[in-house]
Amino acid sequence: MTLQHYLVISAILFSLGIFAVLTRRNAISILMGIELILNSCNLNFVAFSRFVTPPENIDGQIIAIFGIVLAAAEAAVFLAIILAIYREFGSIRPDEVDTLKG
Amino acid sequence: MEITLKTLIFYGFALMTIGSALAVVTVRNIVHAAFALMVTLFGVAGLYVFLQADFLAATQVIVYVGGILVLILFGVMMTSGRLQMRIHIERGQLLLGGGITIALLMLLLTVIANTPRWKNLSDDGTEFAPTTSRIGELILNEHFLLPFEIASVLLLVALIGAALISRKEVRD
Question: Where are the domains of chain B?
C-alpha cells in the first residue's frame, strides 16, 4: 500500500460527500454528506502522518482526533437546529425554509 | 506487487468504504442511507488500522458509530413521518451536481497522480508501535494541551447550545 491508495480513497469519499450536499433535498442527508467529507479529511491527515513524517511523529492522528470531536459537536448542533426548523416549518427540506429570502 | 492476504484485506476495506459511501449518496430511503453510512464509518476505521492508528480506529467506532450515527437516526425518527422517508432529488440539480462532482474528482486525482513528492511512499518496513500512551502524553503533557482544553470548552458550548435551541419555548 502506498500513500496514493489512501489519497484516492479519500478523494472519492470527498467527492461523494460534495455530491450529497449538492443534490439531496433533505437536511439530514446533507449532514451525512458533511460526515463523509470530514471522514475523508481525517483519513488524509492520518495517511500523511503515517507516510510523510517520521514514524514516531503522530501529530496527524491527534489532529484527526480533534476532527472527530468537532464532528460530534457539529452533529449535535446541526440536529438541534433541524428539530427547531421542523417545529417551525413542519418540513426539513432546505428549499422550503426561505423566510430570509428577499 | 505480489498479492498477499494483507493486500486483499486492504482492498476489501477500500471497496466496502467506497461502495457504501456510494449507497449513502444514492439510496432514496433515508434510513437505508443511515445504515450505509454505518458501513462506511466501519470501513474508514479499518483503513485506520492499516495506517497503524489503533487508538483512532477505536475512537472512530465509539464516537461515530456509537454516537453520531445514533444521533442521526434520532433526527430521522423525530423529523420524518412515513411520507418524508423518501429523499427528493430534482433532475436538473442531479445533472449539475454530478458534473461538478466528476470535475472535482478528476482534479483531485490529477493532483494525486502528478505530485512527485507523494510517489512511491510505501509503508513496508516500520514495525507497529502502540500509539495510545504517546497520544496521552502529547495531549495532556506537551504541545497539544491548549487545543485539548479548547476542545473541551467547545463541547460544553455545543451541548448547552443544542439543548437551548432544541427545547420547546415556554411562554407565560
Answer: 1-94, 131-172
From first to last of its 172 residues, chain B has per-residue pLDDT tens of: 567 888 899 999 999 999 999 999 988 888 899 999 999 999 999 999 988 889 999 999 999 988 899 999 988 888 876 555 666 677 888 899 999 999 999 999 999 988 888 777 776 666 777 888 888 888 888 788 999 999 999 999 999 999 998 887 766 6
> A-B interface: how many C-beta pairs under 8 angstroms?
223
What's B87's DSSP letter?
A: P
Residues of chain B found within 8 Å of residue A47, distances taken between Cβ atoms: 51
* Chain A closest-CA separation from residue B10 CA (Å): 8
Q: List the CATH code of the domain at A3-91.
A: 1.10.287.3510
Q: Can you tell me the ipTM of this complex?
A: 0.90
**Fold adopted by B1-94:** Four Helix Bundle (Hemerythrin (Met), subunit A) (1.20.120)
Q: Is the Cβ–Cβ distance between A11 and A30 less than 8 Å?
A: no
CA distance B4 to B2: 6
Asked if B158 and A76 come within 8 Å (Cβ–Cβ), the reply is yes
Q: Which of B120, B60, B20 is nearest to A42 (CA)?
A: B60
How much is the pTM? 0.90
